[in-house]
Amino acid sequence: MMREVVAVGPERLGFDDVVRVARYGAAVRLTDDAMARMAASRCRVEELARADVPAYGVSTGFGALATRHIPPELRAKLQQSLIRSHAAGSGPEVETEVTRAMMLLRLRTLASGHTGIRPRTAKVLEALLNAGITPVVHEYGSLGCSGDLAPLAHVALTIMGEGVVRDAAGTLKPAAEALKECGIKPVELAAKEGLALINGTEGMLGMLVLAIHDLTRLLKTADITAAMSVEALLGTDRVFAADLQALRPHPGQAVAAANMRALLAGSGIMASHRDGSCTRVQDAYSLRCAPQVAGAARDTVAHAAAVAERELASAIDNPVVLDDGRVESNGNFHGAPLAYVLDFLAIPVADLASMAERRTDRMLDVARSQGLPPFLADDPGVDSGHMIAQYTQAAIVGELKRLAAPASVDSIPSSAMQEDHVSMGWSAARKLRRAVDGLTRVLAIELITAARAIDLRRPLRPAPGTGAVVALLRESVGGPGQDRFLAPEIEAAVQLIRDGSVVAAAESAVGPLG
What is the set of active-site residues? Predict the structure, then answer.
């Protein structure tokens, strides 16, 4: 099968393009328009390099050292020194998909023609992506201003044939060796190219795009697990009625409620307590208010997506080459717009998980579970059922609340007070990735608990939508019974959520979810 190729030009990349290249290894191709624009802006940079008037990043030092004029014979060394000194990351490697997203997005910025990069230098970055060579980028090093300097410097170091990479097989090796094996010739950076490769927000942006992609799926999953819990706890779906939701016209809330109505339609379990025998007037908030919380989370993701869309259309560098040939310094590398939404997203992630954990706990508590056995255990006392699975949820939720504290309110001055205010957006992005993983795991535990509770309602039958999800889960996770090793069952549910199988199963029964 032919490998998918994503065209990279001056135009904005789509979210799906980023995911395909970053996560699934799609190839990239610089467009003819991109090559022409880069060549044109390069001519302007070379004019400045020949001029007597100092130009920042072309013939001067960087940051607080920008007052020094660099003579022509030292300018190649200037660019090499910039990259070597700035490739100062530390700590664990970041994920391959994050580095590939960052590489792709920086390539798109280079393709805009506003950085003054040579086309052949950009072609090396294109070749690295297509060969599956991933520079080793570390957890710590970026302040989110001026852009993601240290992470991008590790990428630029690879373009120079230096540093450490992982090849397409994931093997750790020197960059020079990996490039040689793939027939890629490293470059000696010319005037301004060092800055052009590192002065951007692409690390933060890549992680934001990946998080939005994952949260879009997790929001649907949260509606599914919430509906399963409402069903298992003999709750009512009347509160999700469209006319009630319309009284508070938040768009995300309407979508979440519509999903829950569709998922619960035709439920034999719910029909069983519509005969007037139920004495409860209202369900608990974690059931009744699920659309309000999931809806607010949707609206937050929509806001973050709008910010990401604008950033995907941006050309971040300092200085930049404008269409009229001017080369100007600017502050567009500041990561505040991204940092704020990265922090913002961590709040609804924590809250969604908190509500899911409360529903799980309710299903395990004999005083609140509407007739289910304690902890859904087969022989309570001998068996503990899902007691400790809820502990795991609670531990994750506790961590998610900590991760919801914003990184962007902090600023530690750097570069001898030249860079006296920074965004900390990279840190916000790193903690959001951990938060998204935590939400996935909390929903997985709600999923296996609600499925077990639904099975314990037999012979009553669930709705077609929720029943399809239970049936999918039973292909890898057994039904009610004696205690067994739970960790692999939780992990199986995590994978079914992560790969989209849970959403696909529900949609096979009820149609597309919003």
Answer: 56
